[in-house]
Amino acid sequence: MSVPAAARKEAERLRREIARHEHLYYAEAKPVISDYDFDLLLKKLEALEKQYPDLRTLDSPTQRVGGKPVEGFPTHRHAVPMLSLDNTYSTDDLNDWHGRVLKGLRPGDPLEYVVELKIDGVGLALTYEDGLLTTAATRGDGETGEDVTANARTIRSIPMRLHGKAPKLLEVRGEVYVTKKDFQKFNEALRRSGDEAPFANPRNFAAGSLRQKDSHITAQRPLRYFVHSFGRVEGVEIKTHHEFLDACRALHLPVDKNTVLCKNIDIAVKRCLSLQSRRDALDYEADGGVVKVNDIAVQKRLGFTFKSPRWAVAYKFPAAQAVTPILDIEMSVGRTGAVTPVAKLQPVECGGVTISNASLHNFDEIDRLDVRVGDWVVVERAGEVIPKVIKVLSEKRTGDERSVRPPEKCPACGGRIDKGKEEDVIYRCLNPACPAQLEKSLLHFAGREALDIEGMGEAVAQELHTRKLVSDLADVFTLKKSDLLGLEGFKDKKADNLLHAIEAAKSRSLDRFIYSLGIRDVGEKGALLLAERFGTLEKLRNATAEELTAIHEVGPVMSESVVNFFRQPSVKKLLDKFKRLGVEPRPVPRTERPATLAGKTVVFTGELRSFSRAEAERLTRELGGNAVSSVSKNTSFVVAGEDAGSKFRKAQKIGVEIIDELEFRKRAGL
Fold first, then answer.
1. CA-to-CA dists, residue 345 to 3, 354, 582, angstroms
2. How big is the CA angle at 333 (ends 442 and 572), to the nearest 5 degrees?
């Protein structure tokens, strides 16, 4: 069907208008029309493209979501590596870094700095060819990431086509993030629906959303994007970093407004401290500032270390702290029966959120801190983890404070409490039918890392137990549609979706099934070791302590826990019930690989980009190496990811070789 000139002209006008309003709303935060009026523009364009399909272009706003779900993401090799930054933790560290920069300068070199916020999100590289977005790739290990173009197109702050005159080729790097407000709103919706467990922090939310296999799901997540650097550019010369950011703004690529040009290091340091003082007022989570040499030619001369640019550094903000009184100390019962004391706080702002609970870990920690009900305490929130009490302000005591002792009975069921062995600091409820344990076990059983039963969140698990629809884990596979339709908020589609998810869970891999059982002392890594060694559930449940301890990294503690777990009559009954209901975990595939790490003892520390810790250690073993958890003089090398901790420092102290993830991949032959 030929397209009338008037229709073609109108489609072009609508695309330009919609792109302008997307930029004003998502990049500038200055909307000039209502959401309703914006939707009308989009519907007009959709109707026009439906009438004349030839009008539909790759950069049309109607194409932000489309296509079938993918099985996996293709890999993408970065033409220019996406390196990580070295960290500093004080103004003295920043000045020391400045001194190293000065040593690398030539006479007459200009030296200004650009200071940006270090947004706590997920790195993403965007490639534009002749102004059109062609590729979006995650950072991965810095050299190779994943192609997530379809999902990136759903992020409305990312332009499908650059505004104005664009370079022939432009690759920008930036951060995918979510605002605090949007994150809180999304998590509240998850809690109300009970479909999924809430996300732990905004960074996890952004990462999980960006790697959804169905772009329609990503489109429902309130993701945003800021540009902070470039990888490649052709057709235009960029002289300074600040000039590059200004060019991005002109192209309608979003740039954080907190970015400023500083004439010298003193101003740059003051700017970092200013950002630190305002971190709680920011719309999004930021864990530091980034200081960059402004002049591109100077950047090139300063060059790189093996893993980081010499011309840029991160200044990490200290952990957020607050002072508040303890109103009460309550006991929480976990899925393994562990009784954990939790401090109920007078609500207080800390790190940009209001906190009312803080972990006290165990009763030994209560004794160490001498924590009492009524005490004023210092609480700390670092890295988006659960806040913890770090200090008691004993000078503020009035004499009315009350000590807390371990309970004699389980606070959830009244069952017997036992501390176990002398070295164990955890008190546990010994009643396997304890309702608190079952509810939490259901959540763990259905969790993403276990059987991944989407739709069985906290509210659903609680209601299933309360209504006595589930009395053990296997009962999940007996649920019928009529059972689910009786739950709050469930209608046909929601019930069908959960039943499909339950059916799919019957054939999850063996390691995930083992992990889902919640065996004490067996985490994801341990479950993978057991699945690889025994191959089937039947062989594992009959394994002896000697067979278990013969596996490297399965020590006597895990071995005893596994044997004791499978020895219980209730567990034997449960596993037989799983089998009758058609639950058949898949064997973990073993890949034959060359022994490139034969004879090497490897320790991993910090956050790895292209592997989980368990995956990296499994790969090491597949390549003939030995992955261990502690550093010693027998360690061949330590692989250090971001935010490496005590293992990194110990390796430095005793002279063990430290390499980064890129070097590990080379030695592994990947």
1. 66, 10, 47
2. 50
Unique residue bearing structure tokens 């763990």: 444
Residue 409 among the catalytic residues? no
Start-to-end CA span in the chain (Å) = 51
**Residues 274 and 333 placed together within one structural domain of the fold:** no
Question: Cα 669 to the chain's mean position, in Å?
Answer: 27
Q: Could you tell me the pTM of the whole model?
A: 0.58
Average pLDDT, the chain: 87
599/274 Cα distance (integer angstroms): 50
Instruction: Give pairs for 390-396: CB < 8 Å, separation 24+.
Output: 390/321, 393/323, 394/370
CA distance 351 to 278: 10
Pairwise CA distance, residues 456 & 453, whole Å:
6
Same domain, yes or no: 281 and 407: no
At 194 the pLDDT is 64
Are residue 346 and residue 331 in the same domain, yes or no? Answer: yes
Total domains, the chain: 6
Q: Please check whether residue 321 is in contact with residue 379, taking contact to mean a CB–CB distance below 8 angstroms.
A: yes
**Quick check: is 81 in a domain?**
no
pLDDT recorded at residue 422: 47
Summarize the confidence of residues 4-20 as an average pLDDT: 85
Q: Are 501 and 454 in contact (CB under 8 A)?
A: yes
Q: Is residue 430 part of a domain?
A: no
CB 173 within 8 A of CB 82: yes
Answer whether residue 666 shows pLDDT above 50: yes
Residue 103 to residue 80: CA distance in whole angstroms: 26
Question: Can you give the residue range of the structural domain that contains 460?
Answer: 435-505
Among 505, 533, 548, the domain boundary falls at 505
H helices within 52-131, ranges in order?
91-103
Residues 166 and 43 placed together within one structural domain of the fold: no
| Boundary of a domain, candidates 300, 316, 332 | 316
Cα distance between residue 506 and residue 582, in whole Å? 7
Residues 202 and 124 in one domain: yes
Q: Name the residue among 429, 424, 425, 470 with its Cα closest to residue 446.
A: 470
- pLDDT given for residue 123 in this prediction: 93
Q: What percent of the chain is predicted at pLDDT more than 90?
A: 43
Name the residue among 537, 463, 454, 470 with its Cα closest to residue 502.
454
CATH number at residue 287: 3.30.470.30
Residues 455 and 555 in one domain: no
Instruction: Supply the pLDDT for residue 641.
Output: 83
pLDDT at residue 112, rounded to an integer: 97
Lowest mean per-residue pLDDT among 203-212, 313-322, 375-384, 395-404: 375-384
Q: Mean pLDDT across the stretch 34-45? A: 78
3-state secondary structure 506-568: CCCEHHHHHHHCCCCCCCHHHHHHHHHHHCCHHHHHCCCHHHHHCCCCCCHHHHHHHHHHHHC
Catalytic residue among 118, 292, 440, 525: 118
One domain, residues 353 and 247: no
pLDDT in tens, 397-409: 999 999 998 888 8
What gap in Å lies between CA 659 and CA 312, rounded to an integer?
Answer: 20
Query: What's the token pair of residue 127?
Result: 């490639």
**pLDDT at 592 > cutoff 60:** no
Is 424 among the domain residues?
no
In angstroms, the CA 169 to CA 346 distance is 54
* Residue 381 and residue 234 in one domain: no
CA distance 9 to 52: 12
**What are the distances in angstroms from CA 306 to CA 39, 651, 663?**
49, 18, 9
Give me the mean pLDDT over the 59-73 stretch. Answer: 65
Give me the pLDDT at residue 421, please. 56
Rounded CA separation 582/505 (Å): 10
Tell me whether residue 592 is in a domain. Answer: no
